[in-house]
Design brief:
It is built from two helices and four strands. By secondary structure, the chain is α+β, with helices and mostly antiparallel strands. The longest helix is centred in the first third of the chain and has 11 residues, at 3-13. The chain is globular, with a radius of gyration of 11 Å.
Length: 60
């Protein structure tokens, strides 16, 4: 999964209201993860979204 595919996966799971608050995303380096991104919101907050080695996706 690429960073763009991970973002699209996360984006599709979010509500319309959450989608409207997303400003951008950046690739993020995390150990023991296949791919990770930083999702940045319009208010300046952000969260990590990543695909684990087993293929599952998590965010916090």
């Amino acid at each position: 999964m690429s960073a763009k595919e991970l973002f699209n996966y996360y984006y599709k799971l979010q509500s319309k209201e959450m989608r409207e608050d997303i400003e951008s995303y950046k690739k993020l380096a995390m150990k023991n993860k296949r791919v990770a991104i930083k999702v940045i919101f319009k208010n300046g907050q952000w969260l990590r979204v990543y695909q684990k080695l087993d293929g599952s996706v998590e965010w916090y």
